[in-house]
Each structure stands twice: as structure tokens, then as C-alpha cells.
Amino acid sequence: MKHASLQNLSAQEKEWVEDYLNGTIEAEAFEALQARMMESPALRAALRRYLTLDSYLQDENGAAELQVLGTQLNVEAASTSATLVVNEGRVQLRRLVDGSTTEVPAGFEITASVDGHGDLGLTRRGPAQSLWKSNLPDDATRGTWISDMDELAKDLKVAVKSGELSEIEALAKYKKAAVLRKASGRLGAAPILMGKKKAADGPTKAHLIVLSVSRSQTSPVRLTPGAVFRIHGWVRSDADVSFGLSTHRPNGGFAGKYETTRWIRSSADDTAPFSIELPLEHFRAMNKAFAASSVGFELTEWWCYSKSDDVDLEIMQVELLVP
After folding, report:
1. Which pTM was predicted?
2. pLDDT in tens, 67-89
3. Which residues contact 182 (CB under 8 A, 6 or more apart)?
4. Using an 8 Å Cβ cutoff, are 301 and 132 in contact?
5. Which residues lie closer than 8 Å to 97 by C-beta, 6 or more apart?
6. CA–CA separation, 19 vs 29, rounded Å?
7. pLDDT (tens digit, 9 = 90+) per residue, 207-227?
8. What is the rounded distance in angstroms from the CA atom of residue 228 to the CA atom of residue 311?
């Protein structure tokens, strides 16, 4: 930590910043650093002087390089693309795969793909909404999409092989289902290690689903009093399932993460999905540095996970409703 602008930080702040700059900061420490930055003008000023306003940032998947020409932006990096939202000022984005550049002004967003497909077209952000309905194939950033049509195709192949159906009959059933089901399906949880690597007992294995709220829409989703999340899903066995939210402030910047846990029972015949409604007020801040309530913040991510080994957690739909 040799740079003069960072010498007046506390020992904890220096550790956070050093880990951040080295790319070794853990998720909880990064959230704490962001929360401290929202509270401390001195810390923001120190980092601004260190990075400088014309410094270059590169998203973690190598999709784009961002030249900061203004003040406030959010970047969401996925495995195949990076989405940039500019709240204040302007940012110049250069797609690394082909060198294409574009300048993004305040109130716009842009997505750059790793493979270079598609134009770097700007999209104006719409007015804030209070309702949201998941589009699982597009919104998923963690989890495995299981298409109903893929499952049906497997079943029909078995039926044809066993002689129960002819190929013509199977094809007719598939075409009829395609008209009715189209993009229906479910999102299965993916295994992940959660917790601190430095902890005495090490990280814990869990099964996680994460949805990006901004993936399939350009309008921000504002959390309002009395809002309720309605979730349809499926579990193989009874288990504790935790549901959570990531939020940003309306003018940009990380606001906090909120979580609640419910005991979910499997159906008697292992086929019926569960349906649950979770009031927004039941979601608690995951860090004391976050505001006690998420009301007024923008929803950026929704997730659920279970640490049960045989839960086979799947989600079929998530909705945010208001009174």
C-alpha cells in the first residue's frame, strides 16, 4: 500500500483495498468495502485519487475494457458477456475481442459479449418498475436450465424404442407439446462451495440458483413497501432453503444483500411443486453495515440455495408482486 492517497486509511480499509486491487478479495469483504465507501467520503476520495478518473477497468471475464470518464457506473459480468449501466457521467467501452468502442452516457446501458457477436448498441434505461417476473432461461447466472421439451424428447425416444409409440406418433406428440409448452421448464440448482476458505472448518457445499434481474429487461426494479416474492419450485426432500436479494441504490452503487430462510417440504408423491410467498419485510440484512430494510433500493439479483445434500432444488418461476 505505497500510494500516498491510501496511507491515511485504517488497517482494515487498507487490507480490503489491497485485496481488491490484487483480485483476491472475498465476497463478504468486498461487500463490506462497498458499504464503507457509501459511508466514508474520505475513502471514496482516496480511491478516486488512486485510480484517477481516466483509469482503465477490465471486467473479470475479459469481455470489455472500460475507460471511466465520469462518476458512477455498475458492471455485471457473466460467463459470456458484461453489461454496463451508467448512472452518472459517461464511460467509454472497448470490446476486447475486436477493439470496437462506444461511449455510454448516463441513463443508458450496453452489453458486450466475449465472442464479439452483436453490435455495441446502447439501450436507454426505462422508468423504475415495482413488478418483476422471472425469465429463467435468460435470467439465470447460476443453475442448470432443464427444458420441458428436452425432457419430453427423451421420454418419447424411450417410448419409440420400447415399441409403445411409432416415430410418427412420437413426432406428432412432440409438435403438439411444442405449441403448448414452448420455453417452459425449470432451473436446477448448481453445486457450489460457500463460506470462507480460511475458516477452521472450511467452506460448505451448497446448491445454488442465481437470477439476474436486469438480464431480460432494461427498466430497474424498485423494491416497495408491502412487496411479496412468490416462488414456485420443487425439492426432492424436506430442507431449509434460503432466499436472498442483492440491491443497488437508485442512483447507483451497491446497497446490500438481504436473506430469509424457510423450511420447505417435498410433496408426498415427489411430483407436485411447492409454492411460497415471502414478504419483503422478512428479508434481513446480511451485514450490519447495510440498511435494515431494502425498501427503496433496486433489485439486481435474486437467489436461493440449500445446504442439504439430497434436496435437488429446482425453481419454476419467481415473481415480485405489490399490494
Report:
1. 0.67
2. 555 456 666 655 556 677 777 77
3. none
4. no
5. 63, 114, 115, 116
6. 9
7. 999 999 987 777 899 999 999
8. 24
